[in-house]
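Reopening this one. Same input as before:
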Amino acid sequence: MVSREHNKGSSLHEKFQLLRSVTNSHAESETSIIVDASKYIKKLKQKVEKINNATTSEQYFCDPTDPMVTVETLEKGFMIKVTSGKNEAGMLVCVLEAFEDLGLDVVEARVS
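Same output, byte for byte:
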């Protein structure tokens, strides 16, 4: 019969091995595995911050303050004109993404 402590130890060892594999650690000792896991978590947090910062910058470009939008009905669809007094970098991309989010197909897009 196998003792409870042996089962607990075996289960804990399996969990450390799982943690080791998930964090790509090559450490052998449990303490080193935990240190590697901590470093791995810090790197993940930095990546998340970087993505959040990039998303915030993109939102800046996608939030023009003075666009004028006109919509004309055509025989087959619509012509939508977006005019802005500011030269916003990424304006066309933002407008196209907005149409895509609405489920609209853009047939032609021009910038002038």
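So the earlier flakiness isn't reproducible anymore. For the record, The mean pLDDT is 77.
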